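Continuing the batch. This is chain 6 of the set; chains 1 through 5 are on the previous pages. Same settings as before, nothing changed between runs. Recording input and output for traceability.
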Amino acid sequence: MRICVVGAGAIGGVIASGLASAGVETSVYARGATLAALRSRGLSVESANGAVTVKVAASDDAAELGPQDFVVLAVKAQSLPAAVTGIGPLLGPDTAVLSTLNGVPWWFFDGFGGPVAGRHLDSVDPGGRIAAVLPASRVIGGTVHLSASSPAPGLVRLYSGKGLIIGELSGAETARLADLAAALRDAGFDVTVSPRIHEAVWYKLWGNLTMNPVSAVTGASMGPVLADELVVAFCSSAMLEAGEIGARIGCPIDQTPGDRHAVTRKLGDFRPSMLQDAEAGRPLELDALTGAVREIGAIVGVPTPYVDALHGLTRLSALAREGKDTERSR
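Output for chain 6:
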């Protein structure tokens, strides 16, 4: 089995390291400083169990890596349009692609009907560029439940969890899905195969929808965010909007916002990935979170004033930060 991981940040690094350590022929499609680090020092993952360093084939030229059995997309949503332009040589006739993106992915309206059947989301795939390269027939849906960061190129810190939920968009049990699940389990991941992968993706979105943007706007970690009753009430209102949208498209949420906040509190005072990106001056995955929820809400007739406010504030905060960074660089 040959598996290429596109992107070796926090999530991609954990997945690539696990696969390589399990003996899978693993490669990484990467660029810039990450590629240089992988070639010179290898890929290192630090966790409570110690540090593991693996050597993987790495290139910014997909033709060097060649056709794969599976491709794992582990870049963030805002980086995906650029990434897919170069991955064509990784895709053989039967190559399947595992999507691990946060938020709503480009394939989300494939595989189930209702009021969104056949619709396209401009917020996550403007002009259909991603779908043109990666049609739904290639996709195995996925969502990741682990906490990790990448403090330096080629270095990943795994804090907790190794959960992966994967499934065919049709809900079918296929040979390729079984093969991928087996490989990931052998690599040490806690894999759940779901016949309703859209619901699993929407549930994770529902949990990330507010806390990530709020932390990016305020600069606060989860402890202070969850300690402020006014902020929690605002987040809960936005989550209720997303919950109503989910009910209308066939992805119901069987928890209250308070239930979800209790789960988040158990994780401790951590810094969400969007806060880390904001502080590092990186683009934010806002369109796949709040942007997509706003767009779907408009399609199914659910007003989203709280999500709208959160989207606008976070977008403005990012633009202001970008302006300050530009001033400092002059």
